[in-house]
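User: Quick sanity check before I run a bigger batch. Here is a single chain. Can you write out its predicted 3D structure?
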Amino acid sequence: MPHRLRTLTALAATALLAVASNTSGTAPAAVAASPAADAPAVLQPRDVATSGVEEPPPVDVLTRRPGRAQGDLFVTAQSPTPIARGPQIMDDHGRPIWFRKLPAGYFAADFRTQEYKGEKVLTWWEGKSTNTGIGAGVGYIANENYEIIATVQTPDPGEVMDLHEFLLTPKGTALILSYQQKPYDLSEVGGPKNGTVVDNVVQEIDIATGKKVMNWSALEHVPLGHSDIRPSSDASVPYDYLHVNSVDVDTDGNLIISGNTASTVYKVDRKTGEIIWRLGGKNSDFRLGVGVRFSWQHDVRAVGGNTYRVFDNATRRGMEGYESRVAWIKVDPRRGRAELVRQQVHPDLMSAAFEGGSQALRNGNTFVSWGVSGPGRMSEFTRDGRLVFDAKFPGAVSSYRAYRLGWEGRPLTKPELLVDEAASGVVHANWNGASEVARWRLLAAKPGGDLKPVATAAWDGFDTPITLPADSRAAGRMQVQALDGRGKVIGSSTVTSVDAAGAAAN
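Assistant: Done. Predicted structure follows.
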């Protein structure tokens, strides 16, 4: 029985914040599905009434072995074909725990848990994108009750928040990206004099005030000639010469910035904006040891000890190349050397033409999202390289990044009992976002009688089917109770009257 999202989530019930623009909705550049709009409009959060019965895309779990880390799967499905998009939490059987359906044309990115004001929160980017992977949207922060408690945008008029990064810091700030188109003479790199360049701007925003506390312009620090690509001869086509796709904070507080189309990682002084060093690409400050060289990388993260974890796509955008990998690279700034510490490839040797990322897990494992390769593959590896978890979306569905994370969700809504299939012997317990439900208990009463337990069912996703005993199909009233792992009732639906045909009575 498929899982069904039948009601508004707690977010919807408390006036969801969403975004709107006049650009065409698509996943990032990998899955362009509609005409390009090269300059996304400035967005403002607004209330919308999101509803609908579409289910989140399922995940097929291929491998699930002992040695996995604890935690659920956090994904943001995207596809060149119409699907129900939105941030989604699943257990590692692929069963949905929470899903926020977005309006048509919108999609989400970089959905995960982070910390804000000492509390664990949900964060994600939501908006629209051009078919060249330039986003225009809003960053959202939600609490354990799925209430949106803060939003993040770039504050300056005419600027928009891009989809590629939304990183909270212990300082109460957020590191984001803003892709900004500027008139530019591109003749120095073989382009038109009256061209347009995409300036990749890293911004740090104070979440509480919305004020900008840092603004780093790639155009002011990285020459156009460092790019691996050349501009179009068509002056109307913006030159995205760097395509920054991740920002991280190094152990010394400075920034690590990934320049995708320059195949270069930059360490940047967080106070002055000056480049401290460049790793990889045509202008590396390091001599690259055997196996270090990477190309068109994503999701570069500092792991300490001058070591950086890189998702190496090993291919140019849109082209098949060598197998993609996760590479741990150690740099020695004094000697000017970079060495490969270790690497991880998938047994199927997938080549990710777009996207991808990796995550260090508490037990020492590494969780890897393989971008559009597969497509939509996500895997977990032990320190010695054993594959202990592997899953994939169906068809062409994928996720910009994917994570394994712990989460306890407590929606403000009540569970709901769905009885539209009662005549055929099945009812459904529905509680979108409740992560602590272990079992459901169904109570029923004949007309004039008292409610009594008649059936139980193990939790099987936020919409769990419960088989009705034959002698309960004529019950006049029903209710479900959510039980935690100790058998304690943690939520109850309203009592639903059922007519003789098995439908909810008004």
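The first strand starts at residue 17 and ends at 18.

User: Great, the batch can go ahead then.
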